[in-house]
Every structure is written in structure tokens, then in C-alpha cells.
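User: Please fill in residues for this 1231-position structure.
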């Protein structure tokens, strides 16, 4: 093959014109401890610190690299391509410690990868001449250094180690197919042939221990995980629970084996620089155990919640029992006898009400009798790495259900669906298709699993159906092909193909697509595989995975919204150019070396698929061959660049023409991968096909620390949209702030100097403000110094030790002053509300999540699905992408997203509803359904990460007041309506409230009852209402009417807290007591469990602050005037402000109220006997490094809130169907 030069020149270094710099790489845990450090790393000067860190920490070979090497002569290879081995004679002259070490230069890595590809390409006959080989090598060195493209992580880990350094070791059980004779052989070297493939699909048969069976699969998975790859399998052949075994007896079922495999994967770490195990488990929708599989992760997460809640209750109650035994004046054995020790008796009763095992209660008493004073009962939390999660199953794989069009049509028609036995094919049982569909949506809503794979669509686009069906995918769902095959990936950085004028350099994109297709093809030839079967099938079908990253950045920079017809048209055109060029290149290679061995048997099917691709590029609305679901064709009318449309159509015309003439060298050529770690190496703002997750990033500094910076695409977009430089500066400043208080309104250097701040103090404050979310977190004893706070500001030690100290408020600054200075200095992390930004341009900057504390806009689930649908017709495989949904999304929303994905022709779908994982804090924690009324309580939206950055603390107080005379209700009043069914009879309860939240009237209506009974209930409600208005405490009515018995009575349906009542009156006053008095002892459901992220109360994470100022109380009164206290059922969240460094964290703390013993004891949401007002206090800075605090801080910054399993930092962002760490580059996926 001929290879032209586009970026390099013959006879010159490929790095000519690429500046390099010396960098120090350092990655630390959140506690400051060192994870990794390497000084003097040689990297391209344009690379960010994060890219340098990822290269040094993950991709450098950090041991065994010889300081001196020598070439090994190979007569059939040009001398510049000879492989190297350690020069033992030269090494002997060096001190022992200096002979072997780490790679230290990016150029070493680029050389070993590009050199190995060229070396094996020469051996395979891919070059017409030595000059072509040299061009190939140089162009790839340059593209790697200039961040044009990057291969998947296993290439960086493994490729070229033997060629460049002579690193070797005994075989690990791998196989390869010799390209010279096509014979499979077992590898006798661990490194001569690398394992460059990220994605594997492995079969599993219904056999326990034989080759290809269940236990054999765990061994093959381990072999892949060791080298940083991921794998997926369809387990539908494994017989179901209760199916007969050949030797007698019955099978333990699919789930028992899946749990073994999950535990095995969790125990395997990939080694020092590679990643954790990544795997996909797929099960067909007609498997008899499908219902258990669907609910697997959902139930396991419930177990985590139970472990967390139960462990904390046990720890609290058991220690209370022990304390009651010891802290008493009773001497001798009487202290341990509950009949003599009243305190012990109360604690035993409380422990029993919390349903602790009697054995444990008695055990603690015996323990205390032996002289012990404390029992150390382990408590768990919902951190991903905690014991709670590691003790349950299902946490080490992505789960997907394979659904067919037949099933989805049965759902639409509400028909029955047959579940068939694996061995006999007989119908094991039938279930309602719609009920099964509802279970999938509900499980996804609860736990973000399972995903769906649309089997019929996948196989309609299958290029090799004569060789078997596509049954499974890799862990991220982008590679879908025959079982026991592999795919190596590479992704183009689309921003590198964007010219200064905003247009796409089509020639450069085609050039890169061609060269990287050849790299991936050579990688198939040179690779070794974990089994003989995979080696043979990979050789026979030669599947490739070329993709791209930074699509979201290209669209934003072009001034186009991600959710726009023009944006989708550009995405479709770019995808079509890439894949069409790759197929044309594959046909070009087939002309020289022959098509892939399986092509002849599948010729007609593959050409049919290529014709369908071409029809989609032509914008055809019909005429497709053998497709059950029509694709979304290229929308040429909405593509702003006609050259892209012309290039896309030309690429597919050429691919079809060459394919008909020569066949294809590869059965597949493209996928859209998550580009996790490699996206960081290429400094991509967005990964894969994803939009951006936030507009403001925290850029890492070489010397440590971070600073806020607007995405590089935001100014580009504003410039494209016609904004002036001055307007752009103001919009950017609105998002990131000015980083200084020098000229801020209200609070500035002048007003601070008037209060005693000198130049040194002002400098310290400005340094802290530069990275703060809120200026109040820059004003603390740690920034200013204790001496300054005491001597100049006048605070004593007691005040400085008070975590609730607000220095700015104490100095006399108002909340409006603080708010105005905040926006000026720290910014909003969003461009919403920017004075210069025109409303019609807001959509250009929409991200996957709302941005900043006040951001309200984010992309809808539909926009994600439609973008995938635009690109899918031009991808050989599938697309790895998360469809983000807000916490408020319903199960019905999940159903609709799955249905839309099917009808728009997607091959796979993964949903992520905010808060569906216990380990991740909610993006939105709301006060209630009503909004605050003034600036003291700002507008609260789902974007308010932990309400208003821990700025407001809301607590209902306990107050009882007896009034004289009748207090009439306002003419227009709030309240709530509760519908329920008591013993089969509908009951409507409506309340009316005073402005301060007290209930003052009730209305009761019984649906379809006799006139006499309905009238009696109406008059009874009037009597109760008059009593309430004359000051009769609601508690008196509750005590009088709960537990009364008459018909109707029995089960209660429709009320989330009450499930049984002895009468209608019992039900009514239970409801009123729970809603207005916090009497959760009358509820049948634990109050905390009614929250979307409830996992039990946890431990109090700080003392409640003292009641706030008069202004704060007035603000709380404003809330009570608007929000129905009864409707919220005491769910006014108590937030305790904390900081980590200079960052506000919102942590939930809970007030201890006078609650009855049992599950409602200890820390709980604050309740009131008569709720009069909410007391508001401002959160103060308090240093914290608790996992929950760090997680909330991460959510404020736009991260997911998970800790990275490798470096521990809370900098994980969603990446396809997985997560990636922007600190160290670790991912939970396989790319």
C-alpha cells in the first residue's frame, strides 16, 4: 500500500515542529497522600498536566526498560525497523540501580507503538516500499504527539515492549495465528506478540468444567483482565433454576453461576498500571431466570441499604444497652437485670422495637457483665469501595437484556411471552410481556441496570449472518459481533480536524481514518489472544473499532446545540466519512492481500449491509434491504457544510464499489467507544459521542492544586455566534468569576481594608477565592491566621473554634453584599443569566447535567437518543453512551426512553437516572415542591447541587401554644389532598393550613358511599376543624381517634406511609399525625425510606447550628407561607455546611427530636408538635474530608460523586456506560 505524508516530511524527525517540555507528574489521594510521582517526564509542550499524568502514571512502562539497547539483525526487515534487546555489555558498565528503569519520555512510547505497528506491517506485506513504511511510521508518531488519534489502552500498555526493549517472559496461555500459513499456535512468549485488543466477546456453554464451559470462562476472563482488556458474554445457554441435569437432579440456575463470576471478577485487579476487571453479562429475554436477572442489581442495592441502616442501628442500640448496664447506681447483678434497672429496660425495649436480634441484645448484656465497656460493632456506608458493596453480588459487571422485535411487539399488544427451557426448548412458563417490560424499566429506574440490546436490529445489520448470530457485546456495548472474537479500538480527536474558520478538514479526516484503519488491521495480525478459538475467529473475521471523540466540543465550537437538527446532521456526516473511508481502505487491503477468510460465505449479506449504509448516506427514506427498523438517514438539508455531505456520500460510493470488486479485509471497521482514558491523553473536552458534562472545569496545575477554567470551546462558540471580545470576556467572567475581590461590589479590598485587612491578608484571601465556590470559604482561620483573627478582627478562641462562625456576617456584611461579591469573584459555573448572552444561544451550551449552583438547563434524554440515532446508521458496531435522566424521571420515562431507542434504530441503550446508585449523592436535593419567596432563600432547582451550596439550614422547631379565642384561617390557604382506599373504600382527605404550617381545617369525602355516612363524615370534619381553630391541640385528636375500630377498615392503598387501619378515623388521624406532628411511630413505613436516596439515617455528622438571625427566621416564615408543611411530611432537610479546602459541601445532618423508640430513634428529620416556623441559619465553613463530604463537593464541581477505585479522588465523570477519573485516567470500562 502507498502512504502519503500529510503532517511530516521525508528525512526529518516526525516530531519536527512539536515542542516538548519537562514535566513533573504527581497524583495524590484526597487526603494528600502520594499515589504516584515521577519527575522530569518529557511530554509535548501543548499537553495538559492531566494528559501528562495519565501518560506517565498509566502508559509508561515503569519497570524493566533497559538503559542501553542494541539492535537484532533481521535480513528481511529494514535496519531502522530492527527490534532491540538489552545491551548486556553496556549495561554491565552501569551501577546496578541504573541498568533498568522506567520510560521517561513520551517519544519513547510513541516510538515503540508506531515502530511495532510498522515492523509487523512490514512483515505482513502492507507496504509497497520502504519509503511507504517510513511515511507510515512518521505520520503515526506525529499524530500521537499532536493528539490527532489514540489507540485503546491495551496498545499503550503492551504494544512494542518486546520490539523496543526486548522485554519478554514465558507464555501466559495465549494463542496466535501465524499470518504466513494461517495456522493457530500457542504463544511461547508473553510479550513478542502483544495483546492490543480492548474488547472481547466470549462464548459460554451449558457445561460446568469443560473447555468453553462456565468455569473455563472465569479463567479466560482473568487472562484478559490481567492485560487491561474487557469482555462480555451471553449466558443464555446456561440452563435455568430447576431444569434437569443429565446425571439426575436439578440445576441451581443461571444466577448462582453469575454470582460466582461476579465475585471472581471483583477479586482481580489488573496490575500496577492497568485497570479493574470490566465485563458485560447479557441474557436473552426468553430465559426462564430472566426476572431474577432483571432485578438482580436492584435487590443487591437494597441489601446494601439494609446493611448500612442495620449496622448503624445495631451499633447505636447495642452500645446504648451496654451503657445502660454500666452507667447506673445499682450495685451488683441488679445493674444487668432489666426488672431492677429501668434505664436498661428502656434500652432493651428500644432495641427490640428496632428489631435487633434478641441474641445480640442478651450477648451485649453478658459482655457488660464481664467488664467490657464498649462493643465495636462495624458500621457500613454506601461508598462504592465499602464493605457493604463488596459483600453483595452484581457490582462488577454491566448487565444487559437482549430483547427481540417479537417481544417488543408483544409488549405493544399486551400479549403473553413464553420463557423456554434451555435444554429442551419447551415452554417453562409464560408471563405478561408488558409486565416483564415494566420490570426492566423499574429496575433501570432503581439501579441503572439492566441496559437493553435490541437483538433484531443488531442482527439486521450483521455483516456475517451465515457464520452465526450476534449474541453479546463487550462491556461498554459498542462492539457487537460473533462470540469468541476481539476488537481493538482507536479514536480520532475531531477537534484536531477543525480549521481556524470552523470548517472540517475533510482530507485530513480521510487521511487519518485510512492510516488508523491500517494500524488496527496490523494489530489483528500481530496480536495474541486468550484462547485458540478467539485467535482463529479474530483472524478469520478481523473486526476493527475505529471511532472518534470530542463530537460535543466540535458542535459547541461551531455554535450548534447538541440537541439540534444541524448538530445531528454534522454528527451523521462525520461518522459516515470515517466509517465509509475505513471500509474503502479495508477493500483496498483486500485487493492486495485478499478479503477476510469468512467473506466469501457472507458476501451477499455484507454487500447488502454496505448498500444500506450507502442509502442512509444518500438520505433515503425507503428502499432498504431486509431491515425491520428503518434507520435515521443523513439529513443533508440541515447539514451546514455541504462538503461534509458530499464527502460522506463519496466515501460510501467508493466503499461499495471497491467492496463489490475486491471484497473487504475486515468484517467490521468502526464503533463509537467511550474513549475514557485515551480521551484524557488527547485532552478532549468531551468523550465519544457524549456532550460536555460541565462548562467550567478544574484544571490541574503542574505544581499541585487546581484552577477554574472555562471550556476551550465556549469562547470559540461565542466568537462563532458573533459576540465581541469584550462580551465574551464578560460571559466567561460570569461563569468562572474574576478570581479576586479587588473590584467586587459590596465586599472588596476597600471595604475589607476599612475593617482592618492589610495587604498580606487581602492577598491570602484572593489566593483562596481563586479556587473557591463561595467567598465565605476563603474567610476562615486557616486562610487568615489565628493571630489576625484575634488581634485585628477581634474574635476570641471560643468564636474561632465555632464551626458555625461566619466571619463576613460578623464583620457586618449583608447577605446581598455577599451574594453580589460571590458572583463577581467566584462566578456561577454556568453561562445562564450572563447579561450579554442572548436567549436563543443558550441551547448551544447545554450539557448533560445542569451547570453550577443556579443552572437549570440540561439536555433531555430524548436529545441523547436522537444523537445516537443520527450516528448509528454509519457505524459497523454500536455506540457506547449513557442516556442521562434527572432524579425526578419516572419509571414511565425509562420505558419511553427504551421504546424510542428501539423505534429509532439503536442497537443498545443504557440509562442513568441521577441518584439511582446509592454510592452517588443526588445532583438535586429539594426542600419541597414549592419555591422560596425572597432572596434569603434562593430559587431551588435540580441544578442546585446540595441546596444553595450548604448555605441555608432549615429546621422545624418544637413549640406548643394554647390560644384564647378562635384563630381564623387565611381566605386563600395552602394544604394538601391525600387520596387513599381504606378497606376497599375511597377516602379523600383535604387539609387547610395557617401561614406558619399548622393545620387548621380538614375535609373528608367518601367516594360512592351512602348519603348519611358521607354527611356524617363531613360534619365530623367541620367539628374537628372548629376545634383546631379554637386551639385544641392536634395531638389530643390523634390520641382520641387512632386505633378506633369500625367498618370500613383493613388494608390501605394509595398512601405511601400507612398500609393498615382499624377504621376511617384511625386512618385520617394517623395521616394527620405523620404529616403535621412527625409521629412516624404511627406509620408503617420508615419515614427516611420515603426519600429517593434513603438508606437509613446514618450518624449525625455535626451538631445542629443555633437558630439564626431575625432575617433568617423571616425567610423561614416565607417558606411556611408557600410550602405545605403537611405535604412535605417534615421533609425539610437539615443541611450542615462543610468545606474541603475552600469548597462548600452540603452534607445532610438530621435533628434529634422527641421521637418514640424504635426505627425512628436517634438522628431523624426534625419534627414538631405544632410546626410554627422554620428557623434558617447560614452554613459556616467547617473543614471536612469525610467521604460523604467529598462526594457532595464532587457533585458541586459537576462530577458523579464516586471515588476513583485507583487513586481515590472524587473526580469520576460518566463516560459511555462507564465512569472515568479525570485525575489519574482510570476507568471502569475497557477503552
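Assistant: Residues filled in for all 1231 positions:
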Amino acid at each position: 500500500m502507498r502512504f502519503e505524508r500529510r503532517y511530516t516530511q521525508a528525512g526529518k524527525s516526525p516530531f519536527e515542529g512539536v515542542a516538548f517540555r519537562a514535566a513533573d507528574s504527581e497524583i495524590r489521594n484526597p487526603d494528600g497522600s502520594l499515589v504516584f510521582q515521577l519527575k522530569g517526564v518529557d511530554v509535548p509542550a501543548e499537553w495538559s498536566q492531566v494528559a501528562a499524568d495519565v501518560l506517565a502514571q498509566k502508559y509508561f512502562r515503569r519497570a524493566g526498560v533497559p538503559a542501553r539497547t542494541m539492535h537484532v539483525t533481521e535480513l528481511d526487515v529494514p535496519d531502522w525497523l530492527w527490534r532491540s534487546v538489552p545491551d548486556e555489555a553496556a549495561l554491565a558498565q552501569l551501577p546496578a540501580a541504573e541498568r533498568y528503569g522506567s520510560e521517561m519520555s513520551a517519544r519513547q512510547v510513541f516510538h515503540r507503538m508506531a515502530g511495532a505497528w510498522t515492523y509487523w506491517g512490514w512483515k505482513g506485506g502492507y507496504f509497497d516500499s520502504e519509503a511507504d513504511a517510513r511515511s507510515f511510521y512518521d505520520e503515526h508518531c506525529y499524530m500521537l504527539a499532536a493528539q490527532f488519534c489514540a489507540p485503546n489502552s491495551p496498545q499503550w500498555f503492551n504494544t512494542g515492549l518486546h520490539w523496543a526493549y526486548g522485554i519478554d517472559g514465558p507464555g501466559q496461555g495465549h494463542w496466535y495465528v501465524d499470518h504466513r500459513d494461517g495456522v493457530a499456535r500457542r504463544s511461547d512468549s508473553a510479550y513478542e506478540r502483544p495483546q492490543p485488543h480492548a474488547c472481547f466477546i466470549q462464548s459460554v456453554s451449558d457445561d460446568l468444567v469443560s473447555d468453553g464451559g462456565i468455569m473455563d470462562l472465569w479463567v479466560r476472563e482473568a487472562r484478559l483482565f490481567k492485560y487491561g482488556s474487557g469482555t462480555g458474554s451471553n449466558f443464555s445457554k446456561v440452563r435455568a433454576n430447576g431444569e434437569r441435569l443429565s446425571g439426575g437432579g436439578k440445576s441451581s440456575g443461571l444466577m448462582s453461576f453469575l454470582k460466582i463470576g461476579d465475585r471472581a471478577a471483583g477479586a482481580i485487579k489488573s496490575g500496577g498500571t492497568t485497570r479493574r476487571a470490566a465485563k458485560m453479562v447479557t441474557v436473552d429475554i426468553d430465559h426462564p431466570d430472566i426476572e431474577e436477572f432483571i432485578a438482580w442489581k436492584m435487590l443487591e442495592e437494597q441489601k446494601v441499604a439494609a446493611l448500612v441502616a442495620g449496622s448503624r442501628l445495631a451499633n447505636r442500640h447495642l452500645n446504648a444497652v451496654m451503657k445502660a448496664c454500666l452507667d447506673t447506681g445499682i450495685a451488683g447483678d441488679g445493674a444487668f437485670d432489666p426488672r431492677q434497672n429501668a434505664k436498661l429496660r428502656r434500652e432493651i425495649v428500644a432495641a427490640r422495637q428496632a428489631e435487633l436480634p434478641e441474641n445480640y441484645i442478651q450477648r451485649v448484656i453478658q459482655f457488660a457483665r464481664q467488664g467490657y465497656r464498649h462493643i465495636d460493632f462495624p458500621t457500613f456506608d454506601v461508598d462504592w469501595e465499602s464493605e457493604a458493596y463488596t459483600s453483595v453480588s452484581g457490582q462488577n459487571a454491566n448487565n444487559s437484556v437482549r430483547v427481540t422485535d417479537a417481544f417488543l411487539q408483544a409488549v405493544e399488544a399486551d400479549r403473553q411471552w413464553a420463557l423456554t427451557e434451555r435444554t429442551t426448548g419447551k415452554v417453562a412458563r409464560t408471563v405478561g410481556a408488558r409486565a416483564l417490560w415494566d420490570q426492566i424499566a423499574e429496575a433501570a429506574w432503581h439501579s441503572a441496570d439492566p441496559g437493553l440490546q435490541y437483538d433484531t436490529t443488531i442482527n439486521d445489520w450483521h455483516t456475517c449472518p451465515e457464520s452465526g448470530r450476534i449474541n453479546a457485546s463487550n462491556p461498554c456495548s459498542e462492539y457487537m459481533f460473533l462470540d469468541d472474537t476481539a476488537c481493538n479500538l482507536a479514536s480520532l480527536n475531531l477537534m484536531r480536524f477543525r480549521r481556524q474558520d470552523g470548517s472540517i478538514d475533510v482530507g485530513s479526516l480521510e487521511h487519518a481514518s485510512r492510516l488508523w484503519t491500517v494500524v488496527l488491521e496490523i494489530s489483528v495480525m500481530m496480536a495474541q489472544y486468550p484462547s485458540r478459538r478467539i485467535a482463529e475467529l479474530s483472524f478469520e473475521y478481523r473486526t476493527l473499532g475505529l471511532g472518534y471523540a470530542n463530537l460535543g466540543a466540535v458542535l459547541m465550537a461551531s455554535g450548534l446545540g447538541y440537541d439540534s437538527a444541524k448538530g445531528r446532521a454534522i454528527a451523521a456526516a462525520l461518522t459516515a466519512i470515517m466509517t465509509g473511508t475505513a471500509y474503502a481502505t479495508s477493500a483496498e487491503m483486500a485487493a492486495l492481500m485478499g478479503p477476510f477468510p469468512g467473506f466469501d460465505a457472507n458476501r451477499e449479506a455484507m454487500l447488502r449491509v454496505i448498500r444500506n449504509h450507502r442509502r442512509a448516506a444518500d438520505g433515503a427514506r425507503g428502499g432498504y434491504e431486509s431491515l425491520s427498523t428503518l434507520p435515521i438517514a443523513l439529513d443533508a438539508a440541515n447539514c451546514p457544510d455541504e462538503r461534509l455531505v458530499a464527502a460522506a456520500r463519496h466515501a460510501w460510493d467508493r466503499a461499495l464499489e471497491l467492496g463489490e470488486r475486491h471484497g473487504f479485509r475486515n468484517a467490521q471497521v468502526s464503533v463509537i467507544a467511550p474513549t475514557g482514558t485515551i480521551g484524557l491523553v488527547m485532552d478532549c473536552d468531551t468523550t465519544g459521542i457524549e456532550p460536555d458534562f460541565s462548562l467550567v472545569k478544574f484544571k490541574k496545575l503542574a505544581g499541585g492544586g487546581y484552577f477554574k477554567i472555562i471550556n476551550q470551546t465556549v469562547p470559540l462558540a461565542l466568537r462563532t455566534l458573533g459576540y465581541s471580545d469584550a462580551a465574551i470576556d464578560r460571559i466567561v467572567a460570569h461563569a468562572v468569576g474574576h478570581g479576586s475581590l479587588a473590584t467586587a461590589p459590596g465586599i472588596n479590598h476597600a471595604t475589607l481594608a476599612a475593617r482592618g485587612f492589610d495587604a498580606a491578608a487581602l492577598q491570602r484571601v484572593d489566593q483562596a477565592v481563586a479556587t473557591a465556590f463561595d467567598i465565605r470559604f476563603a474567610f476562615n482561620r486557616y486562610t487568615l491566621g489565628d493571630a489576625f483573627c484575634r488581634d485585628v478582627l477581634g474574635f476570641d478562641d471560643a468564636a474561632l473554634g465555632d464551626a458555625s462562625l461566619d466571619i463576613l456576617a460578623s464583620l457586618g456584611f449583608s447577605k446581598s453584599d455577599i451574594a453580589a461579591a460571590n458572583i463577581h469573584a467566584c462566578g456561577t459555573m454556568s453561562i445562564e443569566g450572563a447579561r450579554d448572552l442572548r436567549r436563543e444561544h443558550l441551547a448551544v451550551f447545554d450539557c448533560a447535567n445542569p451547570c453550577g449552583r443556579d443552572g437549570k438547563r440540561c439536555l433531555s434524554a430524548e436529545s441523547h437518543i436522537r444523537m445516537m440515532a443520527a450516528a448509528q446508521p454509519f457505524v459497523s458496531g454500536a455506540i457506547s453512551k449513557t442516556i442521562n435522566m434527572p432524579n425526578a424521571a419516572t419509571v414511565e420515562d425509562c420505558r419511553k426512553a427504551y421504546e424510542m431507542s428501539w423505534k429509532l434504530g439503536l442497537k443498545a441503550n443504557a440509562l442513568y437516572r441521577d441518584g439511582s446508585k446509592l454510592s452517588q449523592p443526588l445532583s438535586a436535593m429539594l426542600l419541597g415542591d414549592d419555591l422560596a419567596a425572597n432572596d434569603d432563600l434562593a430559587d431551588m432547582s435540580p441544578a442546585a447541587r446540595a441546596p444553595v451550596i450548604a448555605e441555608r439550614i432549615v429546621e422545624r422547631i418544637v413549640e406548643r401554644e394554647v390560644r384564647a379565642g378562635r384563630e381564623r384561617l387565611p381566605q386563600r390557604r395552602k394544604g394538601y389532598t391525600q387520596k387513599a382506599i381504606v378497606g376497599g373504600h375511597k377516602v379523600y382527605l383535604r387539609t387547610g393550613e395557617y401561614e406558619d404550617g399548622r393545620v387548621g381545617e380538614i375535609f373528608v369525602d367518601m367516594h360512592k358511599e351512602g348519603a348519611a355516612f358521607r354527611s356524617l363524615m363531613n360534619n365530623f370534619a367541620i367539628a374537628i376543624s372548629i376545634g383546631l381553630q379554637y386551639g385544641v391541640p392536634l395531638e389530643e385528636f390523634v390520641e382520641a381517634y387512632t386505633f378506633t375500630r369500625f367498618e370500613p377498615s383493613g388494608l390501605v392503598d394509595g398512601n405511601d406511609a400507612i398500609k393498615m387501619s382499624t377504621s376511617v378515623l384511625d386512618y385520617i388521624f394517623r395521616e394527620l399525625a405523620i404529616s403535621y406532628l412527625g409521629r412516624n411511630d404511627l406509620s408503617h413505613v420508615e419515614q427516611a425510606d420515603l426519600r429517593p436516596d434513603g438508606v437509613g439515617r446514618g450518624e449525625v455528622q455535626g451538631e445542629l447550628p443555633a437558630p439564626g438571625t431575625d432575617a433568617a427566621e423571616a425567610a423561614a416564615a416565607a417558606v411556611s407561607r408557600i410550602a405545605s408543611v403537611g405535604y412535605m411530611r417534615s421533609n425539610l432537610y437539615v443541611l450542615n455546611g462543610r468545606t474541603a479546602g475552600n469548597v462548600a459541601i452540603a452534607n445532610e445532618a438530621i435533628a434529634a427530636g422527641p421521637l418514640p423508640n424504635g426505627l425512628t430513634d436517634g438522628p431523624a428529620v426534625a419534627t414538631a408538635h405544632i410546626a410554627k416556623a422554620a428557623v434558617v441559619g447560614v452554613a459556616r465553613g467547617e473543614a471536612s474530608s469525610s467521604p460523604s463530604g467529598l462526594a457532595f463537593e464532587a457533585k458541586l464541581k459537576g462530577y458523579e460523586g464516586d471515588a476513583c477505585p485507583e487513586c481515590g479522588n472524587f473526580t469520576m465523570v460518566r463516560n459511555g456506560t462507564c465512569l472515568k477519573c479525570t485525575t489519574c485516567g482510570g476507568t471502569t470500562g475497557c477503552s
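For context: Confidence is low (pLDDT under 50) at residues 270-275, 923-964, 1091-1115, 1130-1185.
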